[in-house]
Amino acid sequence: MSGIFSFVLWGGVLALTGWAAWTLSGGFTTERPAPDTPFQHGLDSLLRGDSGEALRAFTETVEIDTDNVDAYIHIGNLLRDRGEPARALHVHRELTVRVVQTPAQQRAIREGLILDLIALGRFEEAIEEAEELREQDRKNGRALHLLLRAHEAAGDWDRAFDVRSELLRANGERENGALARYRSAAGESFLRAGKTREAERQFKSALRLDKDHPAALLRLGDICYRGDRRERAVVLWKGLALTHPDMAHLVLERLETAYFEGGRMSDMSDAYEEILARSPQDSRIHLALARMHIKKGDLAEACGVLAQALAIEPASMAARLLLVNVYRRLGDLSKALDEMETLLRGVPKAEAYTCASCGAASEEYWTRCPHCLAWSAA
Fold first, then answer.
1. For residue 216, what are the CA distances in angstroms to 222, 239, 312?
2. What span, in angstroms and rounded, lies between the C-alpha atoms of 62 and 91?
3. Which residues contact residue 148 at a Cβ distance below 8 angstroms, ignoring those fewer than 6 apart?
4. How do residues 138-181 score in pLDDT, each as one tens digit?
5. FRET partner for 268 with CA separation of 20 to 30 A, picked from 6, 116, 129, 211?
6. Superfamily of domain 280-347
């Protein structure tokens, strides 16, 4: 009997242990995993960045469930992202007349509408929709961002400036560089319209907000130069090169012209050396310095600078051509020919064959394209 009792007792302990483990792992309280529905597959595809598969999954979703508002919202947004804003607008417009919508869905539909209208170039309608959405929910920061985007798309830089200022105040930020961008954009619009005086005011306003704003320094320098205020132009252009070394190449030719016209060769040399010290690995600055030495007749100096440029960018055709010219002027035809041979080695030896199907180029003719496997026309 004691053996039977021990067997029953031991079996009970095992059963109790198993039940406890099953309960702790979920048991009756754990819901079964949801089936992989087309809608869930669409969401997963969005997370993976596979917009094509997401669109197919959401389309399948609404074929099964015509009341799935979220799927329709995604379909509209995906259509717009793939370059079909008119179809996207139609989808979102249809959703606005549906009765059963949550507040979050209503906002998402209106936001999609605004982006559709921007993509279609219907900026005034987009602005109107964004302002209405913002009035409905003043706490909705997304509406303010959309309003800003609509003003930017419309090129209404003054109103964009005001909205951006409001956003910064709402976030407790002070970002004058972002605001200066709108003043510069307005100035460029005036420049394109031939309104130089209005443009100048906008660029000066940008520099009051951000004294190193690159677009304002560049364009205001252009205005000053054309207005025969060359000294001021040089100061502005040099300021751009020194505060934004990665953009120095934008003003090199401008500075070169201004310095030569003013007969300020030594000042030009000092300026280039100062700029080069800020950005020693920019081959374009070396090229500008070499051109200056060539114009001054300092051919040996030009050779040294060009060698540095080629050490940074060996494939620079502009540096090779300048070096050929320098060696020719020095009478060193052997070195000039060496540089020409280096240039010629970089030129394709034969005309490339181009696949009519995929456009891939190849130096060899193939019966079948090695890239897309299409048969050749011949």
1. 10, 11, 30
2. 12
3. 160, 163, 164, 167
4. 777 788 999 999 998 998 999 999 999 888 888 777 777 788 98
5. 211
6. Tetratricopeptide repeat domain (1.25.40.10)
